[in-house]
Design goal:
binds S-adenosyl-L-homocysteine; globular; alpha/beta; six-stranded mixed beta sheet; single chain; seven-stranded mixed beta sheet; Transcription Regulator spoIIAA
């Protein structure tokens, strides 16, 4: 059977007339609203062809009629067959690209696969010193599990592969996880894994940590922020395992206060501080709600040379943007009031729906309310192993500003 005749046998999703723009623009998500009819009765999880109302072939993907994104588009090449070797090839390519990335040379912890940005919708794979944590959140990804796993074994020879359920994303896709954590290959570490990033050791709790264990997306920002840290005091809010705090200590900060609501994360943070070895830096770990902590410090008249605000996602959907913007503004108003005149605020948002322009407006409002002049001195984004495909700008989620507070 030739490729062409095989593809002809696939069920066909026919678009409403005039609704072909996003598919032609190679956007990897096709929403149910654009579909006129579906021929060939595909079961959810099947490979389908996508055609215009007049029968022109446009793309091929995996259908899931339970989900808002009815088709996850995988290829715009009519000859490309979506089979086991397709998935393997995509995994190989994603990993090869990272092997040639100069920004990833100084670490043994990287994101190997970043979903749509690597042509693998719903597939996340992070490598922690040979231990891979994979998250599969679309039906397309779940059905390809075995091929993805084989490809990772072939290309990386990992010590272990575990699948962690990303429940929020899975709910959104109407797919289910059999267990929160499933062992797929090898033996995952019982204890924390130790990774090295830019010469610094970090403990990562794969089993109980947040996301896949460590915020790899902040790698480059940690290095950039370190340059400001010699001889200064730092308040690191939403510290998680204190990665920014540890980097600041190495760079010569005199005192670093790490605040997070998760005592468990802070325990790993303390371990990270110990991995530093002897240090002059006074490192503190405070388990507290950051909003309460900031207000208490403000009331006590505390001042820091650098305040870091790296909160969790405030907005999960466009409807939540307005409320999230207010929350970011309130947080940043108090944060910047805790910076001594001439000091710095490093502030982040990982809400994809709050874009960089809106985030800057939020900081503007916070500055006006706090009656402080604020200069932007650097702009931050996600690390290069979390690239943004230009046809899928939604992949850009992390943004940050380094501000000088006058
Ligand atoms: N800066 C960290 C990542 C922060 S992720 C790093 O580079 O590793 C967001 C963190 O905010 C998580 O650790 C989470 O436990 C914490 N968090 C969530 N809500 C919080 C709250 N209300 N107060 C304090 N911490 C909170």
């Amino acid at each position: 059977m030739t490729d062409a005749s095989r593809s002809q046998a696939l069920p066909v999703v026919v678009l409403k007339s005039g609704r072909d723009k996003s598919v032609r623009a190679r956007h990897p998500r096709l929403f149910a609203g654009a579909i006129k009819q579906i021929d060939g009765r595909p079961k959810d999880g099947s490979i389908v062809d996508v055609c215009t109302n007049s029968g022109e072939w446009l793309a091929r993907g995996v259908i899931n009629q339970q989900a808002q994104t009815a088709v996850r588009l995988l290829t715009w090449e009519q000859n490309e067959v979506v089979d086991e070797s397709f998935w393997k090839h995509r995994v190989q390519q994603a990993i090869q690209r990272r092997q040639h990335d100069p920004l990833l040379k100084n670490t043994d912890a990287q994101r190997l696969i970043f979903s749509e940005s690597d042509g693998l919708p719903g597939v996340i794979a992070d490598n922690y010193a040979g231990h891979i944590v994979m998250q599969l959140s679309t039906l397309a990804a779940l059905n390809a599990r075995a091929a993805l796993q084989d490809a990772l074994i072939e290309v990386v020879s990992p010590r272990s592969i575990e699948e962690h359920a990303d429940e929020e994303r899975m709910r959104f896709e109407h797919v289910h996880a059999s267990a929160p954590i499933s062992a797929l290959h090898g033996v995952a570490p019982a204890e924390n894994v130790e990774i090295v990033e830019n010469g610094l050791r970090f403990a990562v709790d794969l089993a109980k940590g947040q996301k896949t264990g460590f915020y790899l997306d902040q790698r480059e920002n940690r290095a950039r922020l370190a340059r400001y840290c010699a001889g200064i005091t730092v308040l690191n809010e939403f510290a998680y395992t204190a990665s920014f705090g540890v980097v600041a200590a190495t760079a010569g900060a005199t005192r670093v206060v790490n605040v997070d609501s998760s005592a468990e994360a802070l325990r790993v943070g303390e371990l990270n501080a110990r991995l530093l070895g002897p240090t002059e830096t006074e490192l503190q770990f405070v388990a507290s709600d950051a909003f309460v902590d900031l207000r208490t410090r403000r009331a006590a008249g505390e001042q820091y040379d650098l305040v870091i605000l790296d909160p969790p996602k405030f907005a999960h959907s466009p409807e939540q943007v307005e409320r999230a913007a207010r929350a970011y503004k309130d947080l940043n108003r108090i944060g910047l009031l805790l910076v001594r005149p001439g000091g710095l605020l490093a502030t982040f948002s990982c809400s994809g729906v709050v874009d960089a322009a809106l985030f800057q407006k939020v900081i503007f409002s916070a500055a006006v309310e706090a009656r402080r002049d604020v200069q932007i001195v650097e702009r931050f984004t996600q690390a290069s192993d979390h690239p943004v495909l230009v046809t899928f700008p939604e992949a850009e989620y992390l943004k940050g500003l380094l501000c000088r507070i006058l």
